[in-house]
Amino acid sequence: MGDLFANLGLGFSTAVSLENLAFCFLGCLVGTLVGVLPGVGPIATIAMLLPLTFNLDPTGALIMLAGIYYGAQYGGSTGAILLHIPGEVTSVVTTLDGHQMARNGQAGIALGIAALGSFAAGTMATIVVAVLAVPLTRLALLFGAAEYFALMVLGLTLAVVLVRGSVLKALSVTIVGLLLSTVGTDLETGEERLTLGLSALTGGIHFVVLAMGIFGLAEVLRNLENPEHRDAVKAHIGRLLPSLDDLKRCIGPILRGTGLGAALGILPGNGAVLGPFASYSLEKKLARDPSRFGRGAIEGVAGPESANNAGAQTAFIPLLTLGIPPNAVMALMVGAMTIHGIIPGPLVMTKSPTLFWGMIASMWIGNLMLLIINLPLIGLWVRLLRVPYRLMFPSILLFCCIGIYSTNNEASNVIMMAIFGLVGYGLQKFGFEPAPLLLGFILGGLLEEKLRQALILSRGSFWTFVQRPVSGGLLLLAVVVFILAVLPAIRESRKKALIE
Amino acid sequence: MKTLIAAIAGLALWAGAADAQNYPTRAIKLVVPFAAGGPTDVVARIVGNNMSKTLGQQIVIENIVGAGGTTGITQASQAGPDGYTLMMGHMGTHGAAPALYPNLKYDPTKDFEPVGMAAGTPILIVASKATPANDLKEFMVYAKANNQKLNQAHAGVGSVSHTTGQMLNVQLGIKPALVPFSGTGPALNDLVAGQIDFMCDQIVNLVPQILAGTIKAYAIATPERSPALPNVPTTKEAGLPDYQVSAWNAIFAPKGTPKEIVAKVNDALSKALSDEGTRKRLLDLGGVLPSDAERTPQWLAGFVATEVDRWNKVIKAAN
To answer: How many domains does chain A have?
Structure first.
């Protein structure tokens, strides 16, 4: 334990040097901005800034790049709440209740609780990383292909819990999402699947393209349908910051969200994406009145946002202790480290302790900075809502197009986004929720990859999923969650049938 | 009309010649067909950084990812041959791709102006700690005896780990189950955890795990040991001398790029490879740098032809 304090002391003394504080601030600021702008994500930004860090001290460079990463997680929720555009996979869930809150004139409260929840989660997750990084690494190694598959199945059952309304509709859009994820080049055979012979589809559908189309553009279309209504929403803006009462209600969701997000974030293979979904489902299950969810429940913002930020932090554990990047942003961090001559891996901690502990300390400082950057900005963001919609929607469209184009420099992506916009509008008209579709899409790729790996390893035997204890347990949990979710719906329909 | 076209064509040619003399007057785009932060990207950024100084214009890296790197190369090969779009070709895109992708839209030997070899990263044969074999000789015996049980990881069809892994399988005469992963990272995770028995991959990705002792390294597929891993024997020392392979990266320009421009870029590349700081960065990564004789466009043209031929044979034999 004494070691820990000595190490943290070393970390903080590294992180609070004037230079590193400046890098941390710069990273957080840039991250917040790219997170808010639709389409421009941390991956593109870090890739662009990578060469600029060439001549910097590696610790400062990594602190800045890490700041961009979790700054973007913060910023992403701003777009999700205000514009119904999830900039990041992890802010999809925030659109559900966050945007409803904005429509109810509570945009400031939603943004405030997102910032406070993220800060609390970030603080706790930093402690987790500092204390448990090394033992937790073993958890990551416990998860083989079969376990991942089971975890993804459990994740998919969340889709049913996630939405209000028809279970059947939720299931069907989830399956459409799964199918969309299979578009592209097959990993095992190299064959093109469902690409319609279009070269634009050989690499698969980009998450941002789908998310912006189905959420962002569809929302614009829906608002254009009755612009007066939209303007009326903006007229009353209400409180800017959450009240004490709001905070009290959110303590539970924040703590639970942090726990879930931190645990899932450690898993390599992007387990962190499940965190917000899992937290939302849990809060909805625990709530006294689940029907509030999807209509602007503050717990539906606080929990997932905390999970999101905790996961972003603990995702550094496999990178720092194993040298194995759990997602694309972390893979970039590996690149950044190698460019600086630091080979990430089990030895970083002993060979470059200032870097290791400096980064951990800077995580907390970064979170503090984000809070300082974001709280005053809330007033500004909310005022943005007062801009007349006839001016707002063309700018949203323009930023979406620029953002999408910049991810890959492909015009076809912009066209695809437009098509998904129409699809999203159609889905809303017929009463389908888009969130499960996105969940299916996000998990689909991993689900398939892990299923095939597990079956290749077991030489085709499906028993492998049940025989392995962790995998079997997770599958059992999925079945229980599914039954619990579907049961009330069945009971209700039976009641209706009896009445008739 | 005809004269008009001729005049425009003439003007364009003249403008082209003038451009070649002043080249470069604006930033140069270097397309990297793999994700930022990967081995090819890191090589491109290190070399490009120094080349920018020589050329007096910034070299901007653009990552166009997909289909084992062939998406980026296809796009870059269709760019105007004015020297402002270059690309970092690779063992996969300019060696194995024709055999792997029947619908490949370019021919590595015909559709490019080779500029020069940049740097290669050696391939290592590594195994899980749970594998009973302790060196390559033992592994060769073990692999043949347990052919049906072996699991080999790779990072997708056409990836370096896939093609070099297949090459090893052909030479050893084994057919392990090939387990595809979406990247080297996840594959390594399962190798460390013991779910996977062995794989082949680039040294950059493996050094930390080998130094930490979380996986076994059997051999490095280069003529000499790497200073980054002095304890790992070469394939020749370990008893498999024919397994010689490294993931090379070389700069290409679209077909029709003027000779003067190719010469200028080649010169800048060669200067970068002689620069002390750049060399050190590449060597620290475990990279292999071309000798002076291996730095000319002509050498690269001949090398690409032999690579295409070699991979064609390997991939046919593996299937």
So the answer is: 1
Give me Rg for the CA atoms of chain B: 21
A271 touches chain B (CB under 8 A): no
Q: Is B5 within the bounds of a domain?
A: no
B189, B192, B315, best to mutate vs chain A, most A CBs in 10 Å = B189
Identify whether residues B153 and B256 lie together within a single domain: no
Which range has the worst mean pLDDT, A41-50, A108-117, A271-280, B293-302?
A41-50
How many interchain CB pairs under 8 A, A with B? Answer: 139
Burial A302-325 (b: 16+ CB within 10 A, else e): bbbbbbbbbbbbbbbbbbbbbbbb
- Looking at A6-15, A315-324, A487-496, B257-266, which range is the least confident one? A487-496
Which of A22-26, A325-329, B47-51 shows the lowest mean pLDDT across its residues?
A: A325-329
**Which residues lie closer than 8 Å to A77 by C-beta, 6 or more apart?**
A35, A91, A94, A98, A111, A114, A118, A301, A305, A308
Q: Are residues B98 and B141 in the same domain?
A: no
Over range A7-23, report the average pLDDT: 87
A142: chain B residues, CB-CB within 8 Å: 193
Q: Do B37 and A336 touch (CB under 8 A)?
A: yes
Predicted local distance difference test score (pLDDT) of residue A39: 65
Answer yes or no: is B10 within a domain.
Answer: no
Hey, are the CB atoms on B193 and A333 less than 8 Å from each other? no
- CATH number for the domain harbouring residue B139: 3.40.190.10
Distance from CA of B154 to the nearest CA of A (A): 9
Residues facing residue B216 across a β-bridge = B127
Q: Are residues B234 and B135 in the same domain?
A: yes
| CB-based contact B202:B39 (threshold 8 Å) | yes
Q: What is the pTM of this model?
A: 0.81
Domain range for A32:
2-499
Instruction: Indicate if the pLDDT at residue A73 is higher than 90.
Output: no
CA distances B20 to A13, A53, A313, B116, B262, Å, are 53, 32, 50, 18, 9
B9 falls within a domain:
no
Tokens 């080649």, residue located: B266
Sign of the alpha-carbon dihedral angle for A264, A268, A271, A275? positive
Total count of domains within chain B: 2
* CB–CB contact B157 A50 (8 Å): no
User: A176-190, A280-294, A484-498, B46-60 — which is least confidently predicted?
Assistant: A484-498
Helix (H, G, I), strand (E, B) or coil at B159: coil
Distance from CA of A321 to the nearest CA of B (A): 10
Q: Which residue from A141, A190, A445 is facing B157, i.e. has the nearest CB? A: A190
Q: Which of B150, B182, B281, B315 to probe the A interface (max A CBs under 10 A)?
A: B182
Task: For residue A452, list its beta bridge partners.
Answer: none
Quick one: average pLDDT of A252-258? 94
Q: Are B182 and A445 within 8 A, CB to CB?
A: yes
Residue B300: strand, helix, or coil: helix
* Residue numbers of the domain that contains B192: 122-238
Closest by Cα among B139, B163, B119, B159 to B217: B139
- Asked if B263 and B214 sit in the same domain, the reply is no
What average pLDDT does the structure give for chain B?
A: 88
Nearest to B212 among A190, A345, A457 (CB): A345
**Chain B interface mutation, best of A324, A339, A413, A448, highest count of B Cβ atoms under 10 Å:** A324
A457 with B195: Cβ contact below 8 A: yes
CB-CB under 8 Å, B188 with A338: no
Chain A residue numbers touching B179 (CB-CB < 8 A) = 145, 453, 456-457
